[in-house]
Amino acid sequence: MHDKELRAARESTLAPSEKAAAKLASQHKLYVRERIALLVDDGSFVEDGQLANALAADLPADGVVTGQGLVDGRPALVVANDPSVKAGSWGARTVEKIIRITERALVEELPIFWLIDSAGGRITDQVALFPGRRGAGKIFHNQVALSGKVPQICCLFGPSAAGGAYIPAFCDIVIMVEGNASMYLGSPRMAEMVVGEKVTLEEMGGARMHATVSGCGDNLADDDEDAIEQARLFFSYLPTCWREPAPDSAAEPAAVELADDCVPAQESAPFDIHGMIDGLVDDGSFFEIKPLFAVEVVVGFGRLDGRPVGIVANNSAVRGGVLFVDSADKCARFIWLCDAFNVPLLYLADVPGFMIGSDVERQGIIRHGAKMITAVSEATVPQVSVIVRKAYGAGLYAMAGPGFMPDACIALPTAKIAIMGPQAAVNAVYANKIAEIADTDERDEYVATKRAEYEQDVDLLRLAADLVLDAVIEPGELRGELIRRYAVLVGKSRDVAAKRHGVPPT
Description:
Elements: H1 2-11, H2 18-26, H3 32-39, E1 46-48, E2 64-71, E3 74-81, H4 92-108, E4 112-118, H5 126-129, H6 137-146, E5 152-161, H7 166-169, E6 173-177, E7 182-184, H8 188-195, H9 201-205, H10 207-214, E8 219-221, H11 224-235, H12 273-280, E9 287-289, E10 297-304, E11 307-314, H13 325-340, E12 345-351, H14 358-363, H15 365-378, E13 383-392, H16 394-398, E14 408-411, E15 416-418, H17 422-436, H18 440-457, H19 460-465, E16 471-472, H20 475-488
Parallel strand pairs: 3-4, 4-5, 5-6, 5-7, 6-8, 11-12, 12-13, 13-14, 13-15, 14-16
Antiparallel strand pairs: 1-2, 2-3, 9-10, 10-11
Helix pairs in contact: 4-6, 13-15, 17-18
């Protein structure tokens, strides 16, 4: 009888009930074990706590599958909610299983894949799961300790509600399945009861809202399979822990060769930086992060001759490439990510500076800009800054200009570096004189003369002659130049200042 009960308890964890399976199918969701099977290498998964809460009715594995497997041959830990068990909600043993996985990650320095689909904590179990030293708060405490130590990768297939929403927030990437994933501290029903707001789930915490407005979601996925494929791809650029180098891959040529006239000389002409990225990185290797959020900047991983590199690029095709509050935050977090996991950084600067005006001042543009500049300053991985076109004002600083100790600052022939653009500079310095000239032709001639003087003062050849720039390279030569420079920088010393940590702007 005991063996029969044991076998039944184990079998109950291996497949959903007929009713639960039908519900998953209607939602276009995979069963939790199907998700894990797509993530890990065949036959590599070893489960812990399969019989958790086995004496309770209808709570197989207490609603979460935890264990270890190989992802492309590398060890990783897995936490996967089972939405077919009370909507993936948490009980006391659910929390204990998750805590144990995070403790293993801390001791063994192994990455964690979080496959999240949970309605949150069970109110009926709140005393056992919520307030204590091994309550749910311990999960978040351990996630913070793991940050920068091992990659934490989140696929969000369904809800991540209330306090549980902090699990994705502490991860290095959050991939949300559009139409199914949601993340919120208070549900629409609660918002209506407490603050009188009537709002839909999608408006409150849907995948597209988080990927485009809040920035809490990084990338959208079409379905469960797409989310897991993106998670595996993201992991391919990172080491298993902070002590290891980022993994190399087979080298591939770039998708296109950059023509020497690929960058418009006129600084106001919109220019989509994705085309330049395609001409620099190995074909098909660019993995963009937050592609729908703060799109005036582009961040993501690529490979140069097989070696991973993190790219931070201004995109003047959107909002002129001006840096806003959200774009500064987006860049800062990505730079911290790369620096934590030994991924060299490449900056592609085409930036008129940070946005001005009362709206952004009220949003805290100064402190958010300072946050990005802090991230650039703190990074100790190899860094190369390429001035693609314009780099004006603090925009130069935010894109790792010469004063921020990049390993090289390279310019294309179209590059311009100055406190501000020539038109703005002439207006700022000579506004009174210009206003005094009544004759239109005389005024235009005066402005043109002063503009020419200003441009001569910041001439590219002069900047190179004064060693502000390390090299001036044609676009067609840039990929080869970068490959050679990063190859030399592989063994770069990464000593850091003797202090606990800085106090960055928030």
